[in-house]
Amino acid sequence: MAGNEKHDFVHQNAIHVETIRKEQRHQKLHTEFSINPHRKLHVLPDKPLCRKPPEVIAENSDFIEAFHKARQEPTKKYTMPLTESQEIGWMSTPLIPSNRKDERFNFYRFSTDVTKHQESAQRSSN
Fold it and tell me: Could you tell me where this protein is found in the cell (predicted)?
């Protein structure tokens, strides 16, 4: 058949019916909505001068729980690491309890006679 042939109304209708049947055969109706845990959800406020009253939306506890679970750290979401890269640092509690008075681990800034002399020389040059 040549591509330029004109089809009568019955033939065009048959092609249209066949196309609709193909579309309905491969069509899937998605009725459940879930958030993508890998993307941040940005909630944008209204414009400052907008006089439209805010919409009152009933809270969906399942949605809120899923949102908070998606934002948790992996150690709180899962009992064991899922990947090998998560195994490093999975148990991240310190080996030694922190003590601010222990001088081995806390290096505070202090002044000596050399540093005091250098600071006064820098102040006087400026």
Answer: Cell projection, Cilium; Cytoplasm, Cytoskeleton
C-alpha distance across the termini of the chain, in Å: 92
Asked if residue 48 lies in contact with residue 56, where contact means CB atoms within 8 angstroms, the answer is no
Residue 99 is given by DSSP the state: -
> Which of 71, 18, 76 is CA-nearest to residue 40?
71
- Local structure of 102: helix, strand or coil: coil
- The rounded distance, in Å, linking the Cα atoms of 41 and 33 is 14
Q: For 18-47, how does the pLDDT look when each residue is reduced to its tens digit (9 = 90+)?
A: 999 999 998 888 778 787 878 877 777 777
**Torsional sign, CA 44, 45, 47, 52:** positive
Written in H, E and C, the secondary structure of 43-74 is CCCCCCCCCCCCCCCCCCHHHHHHHHHHCCCH
Q: What CA–CA distance (Å, rounded) separates 21 from 27?
A: 10
